[in-house]
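Before a colleague's protein record goes any further, I have to sign it off. Thanks in advance; the entry in question is below:
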Amino acid sequence: MKRLSLVFVCLFSLIKVSSQDLKDTLTVAYAPAPPFIIEDGELLEGINIWLWRRVAEDLEIPYKIKTMPFSDMLGALKAGEVDVSINPLTITSDRIKEIGFTRSFFASHSTVAVAEKSSFQKIRQFLGAFLHMNFLRGFLLLFIILLFFGFLTWLFERKHNPDDFRPGQKGIWDGLWWSVVTLTTVGYGDKAPKTRWGKVAGLGLMLSGLLFVSGLTASIASSLTVNQLTENIENFDEFKERRVGTVKSSSSYDFLRVHFFKEINQYPSVIPGLEDLKNQKIEAFIYDEPILKYRIRKDSTLNELQLLPIKFDVQFYAFGIKKDSLDLQKRISQRILEIIETTEWEVVLAEYGLTEI
């Protein structure tokens, strides 16, 4: 009889403890992350705000809301200073070791934001390609080739063809003029070698000049395209040697660090990073696509920025729960799953211009 009473006492204690998670007032943390969490003065709205309020109302969860920097949020969850984070946290293998996650409610990608170049910058970049050291060296070498064959032809022609290749300094200019006209295939016909060795020199100019000009043309094309930041970039690897930015302590930062990006600037939130991008302090800002897209579309001061058609690092968003709250985690996850299976959830996503991948 005593044993039976003890069993009932234990069961009652377990039920009481498990239900305590929902009866206690939870500390719910957030940081602005439009369109998921939009802070307008004292007004809070957004996809995650709507979802959390529905979950808390349906499960009768008492809670108090608390704002904090995103960079402090994971540490606060890990230390048990807050019970729930309603930010769109990406589920990662490292995070799941320290905090709990609800069922994922949205999936997205990371992408790259860059600053559009002005017309003046494009012209300056175009002209800068012609002032590139490799191009200048090639142009100098081409001039030496033209001068060499022009001088050589003049040596052979000056005595036998003085009308076309005059003696003295004027004759050297005649030789240079002939070599330029010949190599560029303009073909004025005002000067032409008549001696055997003059024609041999002309043949050498044509063959060597043809090969060299082909290489110089390729060098010019390369100078005009290499190191230009345009929407034609096909993947994020092309930014590994550039100055890039992202949000501090975010999954995007972990991704960039693991993939060997050389210079990563961390920001407390998205806006300071996009401001630095606009002011050309960094060359790209890499973060979650829906958040960047919403910020750039809504903020008129950022209309000079654009998102490249690059998608990588698939991310699954969920609410973060402190580690030892398994019953709370299960109940919230079950309710989230029920909500996102309704058409009402699709309407909420559409209202903020989002679609699932």
Notes: The chain has three domains: 2-108+317-351, 115-119+234-312, 123-225.
